[in-house]
Recover the amino acids of this structure.
């Protein structure tokens, strides 16, 4: 294989990130499709491709190797299944699907297809995230104990003007699914399997069917604990993960994408300095508490930001080399299970264990658990 033949279905805002990333890779963008023909024409003209008014016509005319699905999330599963039925591979924009039932339907179609399914979780692919995952997995930064995961974003009322936004059918869920899922996925990627969670969700201000703020307390199989908050009401926007280990504190603060400078690691103080903590509460400690070697600093290399170009460039390279790209549909199941559990816990008031999330679980087929909307409205009141 020389250049990869790629296509894009869905020509809205996020499609431009895919098209731009593909433009920098050894691929041929053979077609773009949208049910609004003008959008397809505009994207095709900008990136020297061919516009189509449907996925079906695109597949018939171009036979791509890989198709990016960048439509509203309510359509992801059906489009992915159609692409797989044609024997082609799929790259799903986040969130990949709206439920575990949809995820399993796509996975079943993948098993029967020559194609594979990948998911956009680009925060796994920046150099900082790669370093963090490697150092945490080897124990070089110590054993994780406590973590904080925050997605504090701001979306005005006008953001929900498109008819598909703000609805269970169109978006599938609120900031937990559509926004915080990036940070949640990175947290799980760094800390490993989660065991159980307890959550709260509220609707404070936005005109939506689901939450505009959610919070969860999480226990991991390793014994580590974490808090997660997702908000669309936070004017000073921030995405943040902090992991406190036996060796120090690892932290990333960014917005929509990080570079290496957004990460920091503060080694734990030595015994003498730790013993002095709190002895003079009125004095601010300013001295450097780092001692010995710093594995985080020692691991520094080239800076690769966590954007679409990082993951799509890596995906293309993997496919051309015949390697397995690690951000597969299967690898993202724990993230969708986490999101499902958060909604289940928030709407039922009970803790949810990951092992419970089987096809018989009430929230397996939909994040609202088929709870009547008036009951959801009552549950989300503050």
């Amino acid at each position: 294989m020389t250049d990869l033949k790629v296509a894009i279905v869905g020509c809205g805002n996020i499609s431009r990130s895919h098209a731009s990333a593909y433009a920098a890779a050894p691929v041929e963008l053979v077609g773009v499709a949208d049910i609004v023909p003008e959008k397809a024409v505009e994207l095709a003209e900008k990136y020297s491709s061919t516009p189509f008014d449907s996925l079906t016509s695109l597949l018939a005319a171009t036979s791509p190797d890989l198709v990016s699905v960048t439509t509203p999330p309510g359509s992801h599963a059906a489009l992915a299944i159609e692409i797989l039925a044609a024997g082609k591979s799929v790259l799903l924009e986040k969130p990949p699907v709206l439920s575990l039932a949809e995820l399993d339907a796509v996975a079943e179609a993948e098993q029967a297809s020559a194609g594979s399914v990948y998911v956009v979780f680009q925060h796994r692919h920046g150099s900082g995230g790669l370093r963090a995952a490697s150092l945490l997995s080897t124990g070089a930064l110590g054993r994780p104990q406590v973590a904080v995961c925050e997605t504090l974003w701001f979306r005005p009322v006008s953001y929900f003007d498109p008819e598909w936004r703000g609805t269970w059918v169109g978006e599938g869920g609120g900031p937990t699914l559509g926004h915080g899922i990036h940070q949640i996925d990175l947290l799980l990627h760094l800390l490993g399997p989660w065991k159980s969670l307890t959550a709260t969700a509220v609707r404070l201000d936005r005109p939506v069917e689901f939450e505009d703020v959610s919070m969860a307390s999480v226990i991991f199989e390793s014994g580590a604990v974490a808090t997660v908050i997702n908000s669309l009401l936070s004017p000073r926007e921030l995405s943040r993960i902090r992991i406190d280990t036996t060796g120090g504190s690892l932290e990333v603060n960014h917005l929509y994408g990080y570079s290496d400078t957004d990460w920091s690691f503060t080694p734990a103080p030595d015994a003498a300095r730790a013993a002095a903590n709190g002895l003079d509460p009125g004095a601010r400690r300013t001295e450097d508490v780092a001692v010995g070697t710093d594995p985080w600093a020692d691991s520094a290399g080239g800076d690769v930001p966590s954007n679409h170009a990082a993951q799509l460039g890596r995906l293309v390279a993997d496919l051309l080399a015949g390697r397995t790209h690690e951000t597969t549909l299967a690898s993202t199941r724990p993230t969708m299970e986490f999101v499902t559990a958060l909604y289940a816990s928030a709407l039922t008031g009970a803790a949810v264990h990951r092992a419970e999330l089987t096809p018989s679980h009430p929230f397996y087929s939909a994040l609202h658990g088929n709870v009547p909307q008036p009951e959801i409205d009552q549950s989300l009141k503050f």
